[in-house]
Structures are given as structure tokens and as C-alpha cells.
Amino acid sequence: MQLARRWSLSPRTLERWRWREQGPAYLKVGGRVVYRLEDVEAYERAAARQPDAARREARGGDALLSPARSMRRPLPPGWNGPRPVSA
Asked: Is 60 exceeded by the pLDDT of residue 55?
């Protein structure tokens, strides 16, 4: 409950993350789910994002593509675009 408040999440979201094996490490103690502070803080550090300038610098310079363009998934092999709709 405290972690849900800390991150402004529903307790149900944390439950779903555990089921999907996502989120921070947890313990089950006497039927209760417990998160150790060091595991929560380690998860927060791992999930931290860098500003765009720091990411570009880490990659060795300016990115040629815009962030939105660079996040697009590649097209599957053999995909030629949408098929025309016949009337």
C-alpha cells in the first residue's frame, strides 16, 4: 500500500506487475507482499530517464532522426503498405 502511494499507483497495478514478473523485487512474508526499500530504490534508479541532450551525448552526438521517428518499429519483411479497398 505504501509503494502504491509513493508511485501514485493502484495496489491492483502492483499486483498485476507481480503476476507479469515486472516491477521491483518483492517478498512474501506470512501471506503478505513486502517490498524492501533498497529494491524499490534500485528499481527507481534503473527506470530513471535521461534528458534528450544527455542521451545524444551518450550516443556520441546529435541524432539525425526526431525522437518520434526513431521510436517507430521497423516494418515486417514483405509488408508493402495498406491494401487498397475495392468498391
From this structure: yes
